[in-house]
TrEMBL record:
Residues 17-57 form the DUF7795 domain. InterPro entries: DUF7795. It holds the Pfam family DUF7795. This is DUF7795 domain-containing protein.
Length: 132
């Protein structure tokens, strides 16, 4: 997956955040007591800015599943962004190299590359459509 995401620091940061922040089950008396006893600015920020909490009546495993689905969505967006960026760069190079004196064979190869879209993986695009 990293090869598809390229060197995206943001994608790695998002992955790290999703994998390290576990949901807190507030139904647990122990968790509630720990939160009350440690209501520091840091704890409040952690709870407010990204730590998932399990609402009453929900299962912690369901919350984790939703969290992983969200990561899948974010990772897919990163992969598609990288594919489109590579495709755009290729198209930009083709357009910048076009000249009135370009040979027919060269123009033909440009047309083939443009229509083949070698950086776009159809399987990934079909998988992405399932998120929509």
């Amino acid at each position: 997956m990293e090869s598809l995401l390229g060197s995206s620091k943001e994608a790695r940061r998002i992955f790290s955040d999703f994998m390290t922040r576990n949901p807190l089950d507030k139904r647990s008396k122990l968790v509630g007591d720990v939160i009350k006893a440690n209501e520091t600015q840091r704890m409040t920020a952690y709870l407010k800015d990204g730590c998932l909490t399990v609402p009453d009546g929900e299962d912690a495993e369901l919350v984790l599943l939703k969290k992983h689905e969200a990561f899948d969505y974010v990772a897919m967006m990163g992969i598609i962004y990288n594919m489109l960026k590579q495709d755009y760069t290729m198209e930009e190079k083709i357009v910048s190299s076009l000249k009135l004196s370009s040979q027919l064979e060269q123009l033909d190869s440009y047309c083939k590359m443009w229509s083949l879209r070698p950086y776009i993986n159809d399987d990934i695009m079909h998988q992405a459509w399932r998120f929509v």
